[in-house]
From TrEMBL:
Any one biological process term the GO annotation gives: response to oxidative stress
Active site: H75, N148
Residues annotated as domain Catalase core: 28-416
Organism: Aquisalibacillus elongatus
Name under which the protein is recorded: Catalase
Annotated spans, Disordered: 1-47
Catalytic activity entry: 2 H2O2 = O2 + 2 H2O
Biased composition (Basic and acidic residues): 1-28
Start-end of Polar residues biased regions: 29-41
Enzyme class name: oxidoreductase
Species classification: Bacteria, Bacillati, Bacillota, Bacilli, Bacillales
Length: 537
């Protein structure tokens, strides 16, 4: 297919202002002075020492010495592309977000796909969760949907994230293994954190080795809120559905490709866009009315649980098309900063304890990774509308703010930007009623770690089940400590006895000994008789 013509989006036009074409130009220093020789340093005599005076040598080498920035603490390896989003029909009833009102409006987006564990130079096709982060450059500011290709997460509370990441990253003494979950610390963490069981089922399924970024789903994971013009709020989960369908590699393919072509997924995306085969993803919403908040046998604020689609159908509301590759990997993919807190009026948060913690973590880490408080001025992160406020100075400030007033309220400057509480237009946090004692516990159903893991297992075809068992054999088979391997079998016995017995066969430990007999009858319609759930003894 030949590349299709497409109108550059407003964001793509904005980025044009920052681009530099080096072709046919003289080589200069950073100060613009023309350089006569960039291959031989200035020396005191042909065989003498290099002279400090050689400003071109010093500038060139100093800049090189400072080229690297820290890679992301997780999701270090990623690949981005530009595109646009269009809603199919106005969503006026459910949200006041302007970019979800008019089917004729193309909202620019930048998407970054990533793996989680490996470093920036690791292979693409490892077994891992894939990040799926979308920045919508709307007329009301940036909205970031920072999701994954799996609908749930490893933990229920963000305070555990450093523990999870320390366990899954390479072990600290020898930095092995690079990008694999096949090691003792990770599985030791799993057996000590039952809440991770459901996510492990997804991770060890074929979803953990996607064929292409173009062929995987995306999920916002958390429960968010949509709020309409009248102030009515509803709970929502966001989904991306690839028009090409969901496809995976086999484990054998994934391993071979990791060796032969570690850039397999990024090249696939790059080539598809260059060839005009623009990846498309439809946006889906699951919506729960506020009055139905407690109608389910799980807590809708628990990020280790899905909302079964039989109970809460996914409504398709729009489509995203990725139609332009980045011009410069570092400037765009590497400097992109996604943050859960970037929202627009009409989209709001809930008290999901994982979401609440993420609201702190992203901005915090980016202050370090991108060198201070002005990283919103980096071209890829700028909104398409101008920002005005009293934030000033700091490292790498690009804006030349005019006038002497940088405080509020003031009586020196008239027409100076100021908030107008209660008046139309500004972001109003949803006035959810909150009261309670300060506690560290969560509601009871957060402790049911196995019902949905079992639901997932039961929904798999025989071939998919076989893949999962093989994945356990590989991943857990590499764990040195036999006690941990045994505990894995005992843990997954809580999900399904057959699964546990099959796992045991391939990892050199005993089949599970304990029975998982205690059962709770499901109260929700989706968890029907055959899915009657059980809890650990
Ligand atoms: C990065 C998703 C949980 C901390 C990312 C990225 C994604 C993502 C997609 C990469 C963004 C990019 O492409 O630049 C998720 C999802 C989560 C989750 C879906 C659970 C539902 C958490 C939690 C924390 C956390 C609980 C911390 C408490 C981070 C940090 C980064 C990151 C620090 C690096 C950001 C940067 O350097 O720009 N996450 N994450 N994540 N995540 Fe998460």
């Amino acid at each position: 297919k030949k590349p299709q013509d497409h109108q550059p989006t407003k964001k793509q036009q904005q980025l044009e202002d920052f681009k530099v074409n080096h072709e046919g130009k003289d080589l200069t220093t950073d100060q613009g002075t023309k350089v006569s020789n960039t291959s031989e340093s200035l020396k005191a005599g042909q065989r003498g020492p290099t002279i400090m005076e050689d400003f071109h040598f010093r500038e060139k080498v100093t800049h090189f010495d400072h080229e690297r920035i820290p890679e992301r603490v997780v999701h270090a390896r990623g690949f981005g592309a530009h595109g646009y989003f269009q809603v199919y029909e106005p969503l006026t009833d459910i949200t006041r977000a302007k970019f979800l009102q008019d089917p004729n409006v193309k909202t620019p987006v930048f998407v970054r796909f990533s793996t989680v564990v490996g470093s920036r130079g690791s292979a693409d096709t490892v077994r891992d969760v894939r990040g799926f982060a979308t920045k919508f450059y709307t007329e009301e500011g940036n909205f970031d949907l920072v999701g994954n290709n799996m609908p749930i997460f490893f933990i229920q509370d963000a305070i555990k994230f450093p523990d999870l990441v320390h366990a899954i990253k390479p072990e600290p003494d020898n930095e092995i293994p690079q990008a694999s979950a096949a090691h003792d610390t990770f599985w030791d963490w799993v057996v000590n954190n039952q809440e991770t069981t459901h996510m492990i089922m997804w991770l060890l399924s074929d979803r953990g080795i996607p064929r292409s970024f173009r062929m995987m789903e995306g999920f916002g994971v958390h429960t968010f809120r949509l709020v309409n013009e009248q102030g009515k709020a509803r709970f929502v989960k966001f989904h991306w559905k690839p028009k090409l369908g969901v496809h995976s590699l086999t484990w054998d393919e994934a391993q071979k490709i990791a060796g032969k072509d570690p850039d397999f997924n990024r090249k696939d995306l790059w080539d598809a866009i260059n060839n005009g085969e623009y990846p498309e993803f439809e946006l889906g919403l699951q919506i729960i009315e506020e009055e139905q908040e407690f109608d389910f046998d799980f807590d809708i604020l628990d990020a280790t649980k899905i909302w079964p689609e039989e109970q809460v159908p996914v409504k398709i509301v729009g489509k995203m098309t990725l139609n332009k590759n980045q011009d410069n990997f570092f400037a765009e993919t590497e400097q992109a900063a996604f943050h859960m807190g970037n929202v627009v009026p009409g989209i709001d948060f809930t008290n999901d304890p994982l979401l609440q913690g993420r609201l702190f973590s992203y901005l915090d880490t980016q202050l370090l990774r991108l060198g201070g408080p002005n990283f919103h001025e980096i071209p890829i992160n700028r909104p398409i509308i101008q920002y005005y406020n009293n934030q000033r100075d700091g490292f790498h400030r690009m804006t030349i703010d005019q006038g002497k007033v940088a405080y509020f309220p003031n009586s020196i400057r008239q027409n100076y930007p100021m908030p107008q509480p209660g008046k139309d237009g500004g972001y109003e946090h949803y006035q959810e009623k909150v009261e309670g004692r300060k506690v560290r516990t969560r509601s009871e159903s957060f402790n049911d770690h196995f019902s949905q893991a079992r639901l997932f297992w039961n929904s798999m075809s025989p071939a998919e089940k076989k893949h999962i068992i093989k994945a356990f054999h590989f991943e857990v088979g590499n764990v040195m400590d036999k006690k941990i391997r045994q505990k894995v079998v005992d843990l997954f016995n809580q999900v399904d006895g057959n699964l546990a017995r099959e796992i045991a066969k391939g990892i050199g430990v005993e089949p599970p000994t304990k029975k998982n007999t205690m059962s709770i009858t499901a109260t929700s319609p989706a968890l029907s008789q055959e899915n009657t759930v059980k809890t650990p003894q």
